[in-house]
Every structure is written in C-alpha cells, then in structure tokens.
Amino acid sequence: AVVSVSEALSGRLSEGTEVSVRGWVRTRRDSKAGLSFVNISDGSCFHPIQVVAPADLGNYETEVKRLTSGCAVVATGTLTPSQGQGQAFELQATEIEVVGWVDDPETYPIQPKAHSLEFLREVAHLRPRTNLFGAVTRIRHCLSQAVHRFFHENGYYWISTPIITTSDAEGAGQMFRVSTLDMANLPRTDKGEVDFSRDFFGKETFLTVSGQLNVEAYCLSLSKVYTFGPTFRAENSNTTRHLAEFWMVEPEIAFADLAEDANVAEAFLKYLFKAVLEERGDDMAFIAERVQKDAITRLQAFIDAPFERIDYTEAVSLLQKSGHKFDFPVEWGLDLQTEHERWLTEQHVGRPVVVMNYPEHIKAFYMRLNDDGRTVAAMDVLAPGIGEIIGGSQREERLDILDKRMAQFGLDPAHYGWYRDFRRYGTVPHAGFGLGFERLVVYVCGLANIRDAIAYPRAPGNAEF
Ligand code: 4AD
Ligand code: MG
Fold it and tell me: Which family does it belong to (predicted)?
C-alpha cells in the first residue's frame, strides 16, 4: 500500500509490512558495503524516511546512484527496524522508481546545507522544501486548525467577511484601492476628480484592513462570532513585524466588556500554544534545536502564567521610572512603541501583558469612551520578544458618542450609515479583538522576520511569486 512517510514512521505499522512511499530525495549516501541510503521526505512530518537501496536493484547503477537532492521517487519495500536512533523504522527497498529528475543538480537552489533566510526569500517558491519552512508550514496549519476548534468548542460561529469594501475599518487611511478603471484614461467628474461612479462597483472600493465592522453585525444577532481571513494594509513600514497582506482572527462577543474580552484573548492564546506543543512535537523540537533554544519552555511558561493586566497610564509611569534609555519618548498621550512594549513584557514581568485603557485620541473611532472622557476601553496583548500580538476593544455602543468620535476623526457618517444602524436597533455592549496570525506564527516559531511566517510575503516593493 502507498503510505505517507508520517504513517510509515508512526510505529502503527508492524515490522515487515510492505509499503510504498512517495516523495523527494533529501540526501543520498553510498556506503562502501555497496548499498545506498536515500532519505526521502514527503512533508507529512518533520523527519524523512531512510530508504536502504541495495546494489542488486535493477536501476542501482544507472539511476539510484545518480539521485540528488530534490529528485522525486517512489520507493517500495519492507519496513525494518532502524539502526539509527530516533526512528522506529527504515525502508528496505525492493524497487525505487524515479518520477522526476532534477535538471541541473549543481545549480539547484535548495542544496542539503543551511541557507540564509534572506536567500530563501528570493526563492520563496522553493523554500517549502527546506526543513525550516516545512516545520513553519505544519505549525501554521496546526495553529489555524486550533483557531477554528477553539471557537467551535466555545460556541462561536465563523463569519466570512468581505475582502472588497468601501469602508476603512480602522480609519487610518492605509487602504489599497481596487479598481477596474483604465489608468491611462481615467474618467473625471466636472470637478476634475476621478469618477468612481463609472468603476466596477459604482463606488470607490478598497481591500479590507479588518473584518471587524462586518463581523459586528453578526455578533449583534448570533452573539458569539469570529472572522478569520486575509487583511491588507498599505502601511509604508518596511519592518520585520509588518506585512502588506496578513491574516487576522477577529472574534466579536455580544454583551461583553473589556475585562471579558481580555479573558477570552488569554484563554485563546493558551489554547493555541497547547495545541502546538501537543500536535507538533517533531517540528518544535527542530525549532528548539536550530532556531530558538527555549522555544518549547517559553510556550509552556506562557501557558502556565496568568497574563499581567495593567492600565496604559500605569505602563507609562513604569516606563518613565525604568531608568531605561528608549529611542522614542514616553509620555502620557503618546502611543507605545515596540521597544516600550518589549520592555514591559521582558524586563518588567517577563510574561505576557495586557495593556488596557489607552488615550482616546491614539486609538480607533469605534472604541468605547471610558467615563474619564480621556481614555477608551482598548487593549493590546503584548508577547515577550515581539510586542503587540493582539489589539482589541469594547465597542462604542452609544450612537451619540460614536457620532462625536467619527466627527473628531474626520470620518464621513454617510460612509458608515449601516454601522450606525447597530447603535439604533437593539444596541448592546460588545467587544472583540484581532490577532495578527503571522505575528503568532513568528512568536511560536521564534522567527526574526514576519516574512518567514507566511508562504508568499507581501511588503513594500515586494510582490513576486
Ligand atoms: O490592532 P489592529 O489594527 O486591530 C484591528 O484591526 C481591530 N479591528 C481588531 C479587532 O478589534 N477586531 O490589528 C490587530 C492585530 C495587531 O495586534 C497585529 O498583531 C496585527 O493585527 N497586525 C499586523 N500584522 C502584520 N502586519 C501588519 N501590517 C499588521 N497590522 C496589524
Ligand atoms: Mg493595534
């Protein structure tokens, strides 16, 4: 029977079972004893299977001894106890069929050696063949499955919110325009402005920066909902933490306040980390060996410790009293920078921190104004070593205050008419948050650059592949 490498190595099949495995050669080593060891990976698990190819195979001299890294093969034989450590079985081959050769082995970019991450970004279409990107890909998959499981088990419904939109959910003006207009011949109004009424949707449209406003509508009927999809931001920040296209998980909970929101965020992150430790032991062991020594203990510590909760105001005074020299100023009313966020988690408590109640003028228009009139019920969850990983808030459910906030941010209420409706028809307190999915992957895998947490990173000047 054809089995995956994962199945062949699982120990579930008994010794002597005849199987075929299909995959790609990682390495080949010829022994003096006149046989070859060919490691074959199919990506189903971290480890390749060792295939022992005896010299009496019909194609041994003509093909097996010409196999190089990247060749596709089907190997058939029996599972025998492995001499090597760590794996129960190897495959004693009776046949090795070559399905696809590597044209030019010397110039094949993915040689069996360590490559720099910068180099691998230039061959993003081939990097899934490396150990690291195989591991990151399986961990990312495990995390996405766990996202859906967590919400399903807790009574949330998954809502698919649109990617093309007319509204700027964050009001930050970082949207990519979607248009079918002929750039060389743009239709103009009498005033000389671009006439978007002649565009595909009859309106100016953009790629969404967040599904939140749309998911709020469903929260105010189905009570507990979430959206999980791609979001887009034309932020011109060429950093190791920003992507122009990233995935976001956004739950929204009716009748919830900020404290409950923070509790859900904490339970959610812990659930995800547990899933990775339980399901991806092989990949995490590799991460701990090659990428970040304490990768596993760090996640375990994150699961075991309660998150710290502090007010923004308190955070500012802690930073001011720290005696640490920061590049950016720390002052009540200014937003926290990554260096501040990292200090709060690493130096101060060494564990995740939820910072709450930020000054109203540095946060989005939809956040609920606190009774002090100066702060909003916003929270950021900061992870050690990375900074903001989640941003969330209780939403402004009072129409009069929402209108004032929109005016203050210069937003046109006509654009948000449907959003205002929620505050007119059965309004209730509600809250939610957004988890940057790639920041989560960066954290779990100990990566230094967010461009390695997604298959095809999109960043300023970078949309290849
Ligand atoms: O803090 P943000 O902007 O919050 C929102 O979009 C809200 N609508 C979420 C909500 O309440 N439903 O973004 C949420 C998270 C950030 O904490 C960060 O992890 C991630 O999204 N994020 C990015 N990740 C990668 N690249 C970027 N350019 C990102 N911008 C935000
Ligand atoms: Mg934020």
Answer: Belongs to the class-II aminoacyl-tRNA synthetase family.
